[in-house]
Design brief:
It is a single chain. The relative contact order is 0.12. The chain is built from 16 helices and nine strands. It has helices spanning 29-43, 67-76, 80-96, 113-116, 147-151, 158-165, 171-176, 186-197, 204-217, 228-239, 245-254, 258-269, 272-285, 290-304, 310-319, 337-342; strands spanning 5-10, 13-18, 50-55, 60-62, 102-106, 109-111, 123-126, 131-133, 182-183.
Length: 364
Amino acid sequence: MTEFVSTQLQGGVAYLTLTRPQALNALSLDMIRAMTEALTRWEADPAVHAVVVAGAGGKAFCAGGDIRWFHKAYHEGDPLLDQFFVEEYALNYLIHRYGKPYIALMDGVVMGGGMGISQGARLRVVTDRTKMAMPETNIGLFPDVGGGWFLARTPGRIGEYLGLTGVVIGAADALYAKLADAYLPSNVLAELVASLQARTFGSGDAVLAHVAGYTAGHAGACVPSESRLAQQAGSIDTMFGLDTVGGILDAVSDAPGDWAAQTAAMLRSRSPLMLCVTLEQVRRARSMSLADELRMELDMMHDVFRHGDGVEGIRALAIDKDHQPRWNPGRLDEVTPGRVRAFFDTKWREEAHPLAALGHAGRG
């Protein structure tokens, strides 16, 4: 294991913990490789019946990929920048198709790459501290790590809303959007883990039943707030079901109320190009298998640093921190259909695609 990933096997359960709290457990390539190695080994180990993944430090499960490293690697021409996404997406696929129960304790910040290592879990537990988002359009990227696939499978047009705005949601909204399965107060998570470690399990189903019983039966397990997404579902479906980003922005801008005003402001601050790319991504992903969608994302990511707004977005947010990105183009009406389509052109022959091993076209 790396210094930022720890593992433990006890009572038939393997525990995988991200231990980079000073960076909100952001993923490095070494961490992705360590997780892939551990999960592959455990899947073949008859002594392991289930896996529990968590983040150390009390503030974050995982805040995503290490975007500062992305910026550095781009400017240094480091070939590992492309390799990072190849291996990250392969890990995401492994988790979605994992042969044993994989349980994600999504306490604190769960964004970007953190969603990639949790959305494929058999059981996704959120807390009162959960801050969930796919905020990529804010840094000139698109919701990757399978984001197009799992956002497209949320109710109604919530996927378009979350993907375009990058808005941060809490536990109630995550449960409503079917991006989480169960809720526990954050101060009870340690009790849950202790209760798991105090037992020996003979099957993955027994582990799942124990966690489900704990979340259902524990006092305070009811979500403490109402879902705002549920309250705005009608407006989201109407506005974010429109054909173009321009149409969506016009509709939101014309709508009354604080929610509409805040949503319009978020959209106006995002990369116009990546808003259009993201809308196309989510719409395409609705009819795609996970494997095909991840291959599509790798095609898209190949362009995002070379011809998109990724480098500039990361500079403005995380490097210079001036929060004044110079998007190219700067206006929605300057984004051409051809430039959007170019993100979806594959760069490899089918058999030579770096993610060809994930499965055959049209299948999982």
